[in-house]
Amino acid sequence: QLERVFSHAADVGAKVVLVGDPQQLQAIEAGAAFRSLHERHGGVEIGEVRRQRQDWQRDATRDLATGRIGAAIGAYDAQGMVHQAATRDEARAELVERWDRDRQAHPEASRIILIHTNDEVRALNQAARERLRAAGDLGGDVQVTVERGPRNFASGDRIMFLRNERGLGVKNGTLGVIEAVSEQSMSVRTDNGRAVRFDLKDYAHIDHGYAATIHKAQGMTVDRTHVLATPGMDAHGSYVALSRHRDGTNLHYGSDDFATRDRLVRSLSRDRAKDMASDYEQIDPAQHYAERRGITFRQRVVEIVRRIVPEKLRDRIGELLDGLRSPEDGEPMQEGGRRPKREDVRVQIGDAGSTPERRTPATGVSRDSNVPVDAEAALRRDRTNALVRHARAIDAILRSGNADGQGSPEQMRELRDARSAFEKVRPHGWRDAEAAYAKSPELVREAGAGAVNRIVFALQLETEIRTGMD
Prior knowledge:
CATH topology of the largest domain: Rossmann fold
Distance between the termini: 19 Å
Strand order of the largest sheet: 1-12-11-2-10
Radius of gyration: 31 Å
Largest sheet: 5 strands, parallel
Number of strands: 12
């Protein structure tokens, strides 16, 4: 999708400005194009937090943005804003009770209940609406059919607009209160004070607006939020859910989901950033085979020359061979910075019993010691190596053909080590990979050979299945 935007912009000579936060909710489609572009090309970053009104809450939002979820939850817990119940059902009931008390105490404030799944949204919308009905704050119900099915709406109901509509001046996620409703039309006062009237046959993308999924709330700002934590949440969802408010938030959870606060923090701190194929190096199988055996490009050329070039001609092409090197070999130099003489090259090439050695300056420091390390490239290399090693460990076991699916003790030990190495550079990576291999066994040998494009895509799909992303 982004490629189509860029291509069209290039065709018409337009400029594209991307605005976003790669730490917030991940893209629905495969890949993480925005994050990848930002990592490779950089960008202007806004470091000032403006939404929260109190300094300690702004600090908590910075913690959320930098992955320090535990510190942020600790800050809200210290202010009495984190609430544990025996079960999720009890946590849900306590959340609605606290939401209702807050509504009555601060009727002028805007608020939203946030949860991970659409099923929970429907239940919480209904529970909140029942509180308003019991308090006499709603008019008579009118049943209308909207995009998500039949719903009862009344004057006084809070609703959410679910699709951008320029003609009405509303966006996906706009909140408001119904002023009048019939089976044909609706009048709404949005939270920013605009009066909106529309026919339901022309625009039916609405629902009750007491609760919403965290995905729907991205970009939203309200005075107060009430969050129900469930195991499907991660660091990205926590960041969004706990930073939508101006004045305060309350986080509820059940002990049947999280037995302790530490488990709550661990779950809400999980990093599920999406992968790109470019996050993994593409391996040339022949080059990888050589590098695993310590054979560099220049060394291999020298070995070939020993075999096919007559000895009397070797000194004539010494200087030519001196220029045949890979970037890793560096510039052939001797102490004092002078280039090696022809006699030196002849000794290196002609002495079949010796191995060419890379000389270093007199200081004894490697020529590469001052070259800055590209952390991103190093991570891609580590991920690729871990993925390939894991695939080869599985392939070795599959090739053994044991009826019980178990390899030799050495093979099983290598598989355990490969899983551990994969886990360090990509949490849950080996589990997602093995789930993908179970569905497409041909990917094992393909990944083991260094062709990682298809398995990276399969990994992403398995991650989404495992995490239950909406």
